[in-house]
Write a structure and sequence with these properties.
By secondary structure, the chain is mostly helical. It contains 4 helices and no strands. It has one domain. The protein is elongated, with a radius of gyration of 14 Å.
Length: 67
C-alpha cells in the first residue's frame, strides 16, 4: 500500500474511482476482491473498515488452525 500511495501521487488527473479500481484489481484475497466487485466500497474509509474486518477474520482463522 505504501508503494501504491507513492505512485498515485505522481499520476495526473488522479481520481478516487481510479484508485479504488486499481486497488481491487491488485488484491490477492479472491473472496474479498469478489465481495468488493459485487458491492463496491463508496469511499476509502469504508474500504479500510472492510479490510480491517477481513484481516481480523484471517487472524482468527489462523489462530483456530494453530489451536
Amino acid at each position: 500500500m505504501d508503494r501504491f500511495g507513492k505512485v498515485a501521487l505522481n499520476i495526473l488527473n488522479w481520481s478516487s474511482y481510479m484508485a479504488m479500481y486499481h486497488i481491487v484489481t491488485a488484491l490477492r484475497s479472491v473472496p474479498f476482491a469478489d465481495s468488493l466487485c459485487m458491492e463496491p466500497a463508496t469511499n476509502f474509509d469504508e474500504l479500510r473498515q472492510r479490510t480491517a474486518k477481513l484481516m481480523q477474520l484471517e487472524e482468527l482463522r489462523e489462530f483456530r488452525n494453530q489451536a
